[in-house]
Design goal:
It is a single chain. The longest helix has 27 residues, at about 65-90. The chain is an alpha+beta fold and about 140 residues long. Strands 2-1-3 form a three-stranded antiparallel beta sheet. A two-stranded antiparallel ribbon has the order 4-5. Helices cover about 45% and strands about 15% of the residues.
């Protein structure tokens, strides 16, 4: 699944690619306002829905689950901080390399001397993920 927003100019900005078993919306645990992004299913997916009140009750009665949730949220905050820093200070080549390294670590499958990343996303989705255009992503020189 991909989570994205549409900016004022109508451009899609991919916020994250959700992995198998990952929960969303993250902000829904702390803020009852509508989820600020759109989530699109990219392949066959099963969703498990837990009412917010039931989840709150579960967290009150299971401190280990609450601690695990805090660890997940902390990791998400760090991941988003790193992406923001990358957008601010890195060029497209560095953002591309950083995204590929992260995707290889998270989803890569080692085959022979390489690591293969299989994602059900388009070139445009990947360009949106790293904050560039599709044309710039596939161009031989990404200056």
């Amino acid at each position: 699944m991909k989570a994205y927003k549409i900016d004022e100019a109508g451009n899609e900005q991919v916020i994250s690619l959700l992995r198998d078993g990952e929960m969303f919306p993250h902000v829904g645990f702390f803020d009852r306002s509508p989820y600020p992004v759109t989530v699109e299913v990219l392949q066959h997916t099963e969703l498990v829905v837990i009412r917010v009140d039931d989840f709150d009750e579960l967290l009150r009665h299971d401190p280990q689950l609450t601690m695990k949730l805090m660890q997940i949220m902390g990791s998400k905050i760090i991941e988003l901080q790193e992406r923001i820093q990358s957008f601010i200070s890195k060029d497209v080549q560095h953002r591309l390399a950083h995204a590929l390294i992260n995707l290889a670590a998270e989803r890569g499958v080692k085959k022979g001397d390489g690591v293969y990343i299989q994602l059900p996303i388009t070139n445009q989705d990947f360009a949106n993920l790293i904050g560039t255009s599709r044309e710039r992503l596939i161009a031989p020189s990404m200056k």
